[in-house]
Inverse folding.
């Protein structure tokens, strides 16, 4: 199986960190975030990786090269302008001929890939979205009013629960036809087109560790966790 990693974004939510370093290359512990993803892929016998790059791409290319240092094969595809998540994926279409794994470079997820692959293939899905359970305590009280402005309820600091997208997907090449050529497109827009065309889109809840690097707050938390794992520094 090939893996496509989307690493072409500008990382605007991570500025000023990403003015001079692409988001995928921000450090977690003693290595870039992207290297942690590659390590997990290799653990799961995925050794052929396609990196979708654009912004500050030379930093990614010079560090990872052809992947031989990691006993992997790494190829690169380019976009000259911001293309959105699905638009980035579309640039790799010519290299994808079978089931593949699509990964956002700003999230790290550890799960049993073989189990998810079996689930995906048995159902003949065009794509399977990897999900995790999430809950968040809202730091405010929710007040409910009726049409006359009378208070009918008050929930102090309610807990919101649900399933969230991890940015990891198993996909078939046919899913890519729902992404237009040379057009900035978000992943949710591509999924909506697929659903409207009666494609089978599955969701699979996984229990593995999920680390979100999407903004400065979440990145800082993850960075501290990885430093702690390294132990006391000499």
């Amino acid at each position: 199986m090939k893996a496509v990693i989307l690493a072409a974004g500008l990382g605007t939510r991570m500025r000023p960190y990403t003015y001079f370093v692409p988001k995928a290359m921000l450090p977690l512990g003693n290595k870039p975030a992207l290297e942690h993803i590659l390590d997990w892929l290799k653990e799961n016998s995925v050794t052929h990786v396609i990196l979708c790059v654009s912004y500050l791409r030379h930093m990614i290319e010079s560090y990872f090269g052809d992947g031989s240092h990691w006993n992997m094969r790494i190829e690169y595809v380019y976009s000259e302008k911001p293309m959105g998540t699905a638009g980035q994926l579309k640039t790799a279409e010519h290299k994808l001929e079978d089931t593949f794994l699509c990964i956002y470079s700003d999230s790290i997820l550890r799960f049993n890939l073989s189990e998810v692959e079996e689930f995906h293939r048995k159902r003949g899905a065009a794509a399977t979205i990897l999900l995790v359970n999430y809950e968040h305590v809202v730091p405010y009280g929710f007040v409910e009013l009726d049409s006359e402005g009378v208070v009918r309820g008050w929930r102090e600091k309610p807990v919101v629960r649900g399933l969230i997208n991890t940015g990891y997907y198993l996909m078939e090449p046919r899913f890519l036809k729902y992404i237009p050529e040379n057009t900035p497109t978000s992943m949710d827009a591509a999924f909506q087109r697929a659903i409207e065309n009666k494609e089978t889109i599955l969701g699979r809840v996984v229990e593995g560790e999920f680390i979100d690097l999407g903004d400065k707050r979440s990145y800082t938390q993850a960075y501290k966790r990885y430093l702690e794992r390294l132990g006391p520094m000499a």
